[in-house]
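Below is a filled-in request sheet from our internal design queue. Each sheet records the structural input a requester submitted and the sequence that came back. We keep these sheets so that new team members can see what a complete request looks like end to end.

REQUESTER: design group, bay 2
PRIORITY: normal
MODE: inverse folding
CHAIN LENGTH: 577
BACKBONE (tokenized):
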């Protein structure tokens, strides 16, 4: 299995008048390979900075404007300085949270006794679990759940791609081994080989992918190969990979084919959808929708079928009467490297206006184990959700149960996420759930299972279907009522900075009004998603080691970036992962 390299590829030169800047090869995992979205360089090998462009899909240097390059470098320095200066604040919060849980929570001694009982008298074979996505908070949370299902038996092997060798989760005390693998975006075959090598090296029993959007299908493909290898070597009957089949993953990962799949299986509330494969198809569909607008009065949203961090919030509406405006948007999409093509199609989906109706968006995370629904949690959703609180939404829960019953066979297992918009039907007066999309991967909201007992139950549901002794499952696991909502400490601190100061420092965390009072209430009444009194180091290392070093990598490059995502554990770069 490949380890992170201590050297970078050839330095990329950025012309600045008569001088040049070369990114420093100080950090491991920095890639300089070319990409299909990269624009041609001059004969001298330099990149003209006057060209408007973006970055490649694997984080490589692509031409962009000089003012953006310089401003983003300054913002990098500001963020690094802020995250370093916030170390004392994080330590103070950690001490406060520890005291709060230890001395202010009732029943803590009982919980400790229950924890000790978990491992007593259990001398069965060790279960080695391979968990991907170490940079992300949800990977850490899932590793904790799996470990706590049976601490004496479960061994956690946590992995990430080489770029994220510095993941804070590697310092968790639930992680037994940390390894790095190739990037599936740039070399999917090497990624597959690395995973298989690790599975053999560590004698892995269960594969649990915590996938980034780009790697969902690659992980599903490996899951099938791993299951076949297990059957050949050990005679397993049940698939030991907690991920969907490649075929089902591809269907769910495409918003349009997911809608068709739901309609075929007779599920209610499916919004009308079209698939467009070129600018010409968009323009033709726009004309068709304009003709039908008077009769239907329906608006539609044009959105990328692939994960698109740049245009996912555009919500560009069709039909558009101003054709030139539509052409300009399509031109912008192409210039940003996300052109609508047969290979990379987009979706046009019926639009439900949240502001005009009594509508609300929700996200549902669920666990399917051997074709059965074993876990479900629902929370309010937004474009960039970093606060989680389980809510009871009957229409969403009914739809999810029907979805699980109709769409999965006994061989299907996986952690998936569904996005909904719920509103009242004007004719029947009944609230209905309309699925918007399905993400065939675990959602960060699974962190609402935040107590030791709830994590242990989720881990058992994932590994054993609900019980450790092979007996009957315990039904559908849902979070307990009236638990503490979750937040990310560094994100809330930056959100509390007044808008004028954020603008001056180049911060992009919102909201538009100061939130110092709200911040105090959050710290007192809610729970930090990463912090765990039994496992405190990942909280500190993710915020003050992982992200500063990633920012340092971005600093010594010309990559355009937006902000730090403290949940996913990455710097959100234009065209990044």
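RETURNED SEQUENCE:
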């Amino acid at each position: 299995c490949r380890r992170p390299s201590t050297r970078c590829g050839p330095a990329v030169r950025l012309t600045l008048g008569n001088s040049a800047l070369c990114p420093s090869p100080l950090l491991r995992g920095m890639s300089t390979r070319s990409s299909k979205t990269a624009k041609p360089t001059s004969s001298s090998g330099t990149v003209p900075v006057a060209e408007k462009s973006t970055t490649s899909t694997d984080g490589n240097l692509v031409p962009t404007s000089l003012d953006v390059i310089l401003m983003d470098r300054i913002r990098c320095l500001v963020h690094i300085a802020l995250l370093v200066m916030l170390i004392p604040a994080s330590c103070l919060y950690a001490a406060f949270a520890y005291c709060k849980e230890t001395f202010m929570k009732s029943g803590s001694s009982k919980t400790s006794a229950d924890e000790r009982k978990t491992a007593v008298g259990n001398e069965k074979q060790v279960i080695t679990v391979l968990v991907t996505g170490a940079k992300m908070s949800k990977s850490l949370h899932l590793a904790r759940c799996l470990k706590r299902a049976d601490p004496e038996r479960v061994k956690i092997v946590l992995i990430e791609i080489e770029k994220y060798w510095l993941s804070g989760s590697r310092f968790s005390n639930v992680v037994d081994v940390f390894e790095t693998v190739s990037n599936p975006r740039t070399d999917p075959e090497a990624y597959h080989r690395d995973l298989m090598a690790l599975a053999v090296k560590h004698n892995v029993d269960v594969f649990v992918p915590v996938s980034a959007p780009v790697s969902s299908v690659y992980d599903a493909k490996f899951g099938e190969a791993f299951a076949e290898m297990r059957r050949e070597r050990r005679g397993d009957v049940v698939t030991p990979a907690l991920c969907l089949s490649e075929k089902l993953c591809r269907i769910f990962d495409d918003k349009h084919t997911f809608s068709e799949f739901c309609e075929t299986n007779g599920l209610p509330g499916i919004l009308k959808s079209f698939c467009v494969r070129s600018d010409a198809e968009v323009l033709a569909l726009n004309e068709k929708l304009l003709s039908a607008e008077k009769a239907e009065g329906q608006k539609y949203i044009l959105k990328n079928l692939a994960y698109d961090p740049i245009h996912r919030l555009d919500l560009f509406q069709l039909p558009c009467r101003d054709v030139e405006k539509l052409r300009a948007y399509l031109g912008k999409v192409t210039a940003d490297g996300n052109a609508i093509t047969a290979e990379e199609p987009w979706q046009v989906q019926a639009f439900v206006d949240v502001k005009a109706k009594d509508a609300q968006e929700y996200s549902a995370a669920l666990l399917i184990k051997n074709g059965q629904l074993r876990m479900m949690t629902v929370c309010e959703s937004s474009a960039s959700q970093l606060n989680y609180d389980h809510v009871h939404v009957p229409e969403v829960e009914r739809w999810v149960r029907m979805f699980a019953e109709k769409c999965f066979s006994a061989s299907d297992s996986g952690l998936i996420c569904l996005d909904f918009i719920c509103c009242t039907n004007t004719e029947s007066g009944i609230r209905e759930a309309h699925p918007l999309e399905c993400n065939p991967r675990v959602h960060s909201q699974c962190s609402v299972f935040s107590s030791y007992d709830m994590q242990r139950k989720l881990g058992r549901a994932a590994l054993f279907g609900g019980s450790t002794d092979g007996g009957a499952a315990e039904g559908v696991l849902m979070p307990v009522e009236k638990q503490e909502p979750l937040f990310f400490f560094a994100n809330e601190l930056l959100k509390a900075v007044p808008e004028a100061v954020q603008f001056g420092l180049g911060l992009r965390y919102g909201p538009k009004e100061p939130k110092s009072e709200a911040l105090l209430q959050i710290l007192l009444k809610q729970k930090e998603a990463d912090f765990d009194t039994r496992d405190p180091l990942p909280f500190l290392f993710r915020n003050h080691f992982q992200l500063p070093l990633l920012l340092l990598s971005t600093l010594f490059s010309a990559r355009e970036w937006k902000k730090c995502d403290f949940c996913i554990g990455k710097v959100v770069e234009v065209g990044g992962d």
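SHEET NOTES:
- The first helix runs from residue 66 to 85.
- Residues 424 and 430 are 5 Å apart (CA to CA).
FILED BY: M.R.
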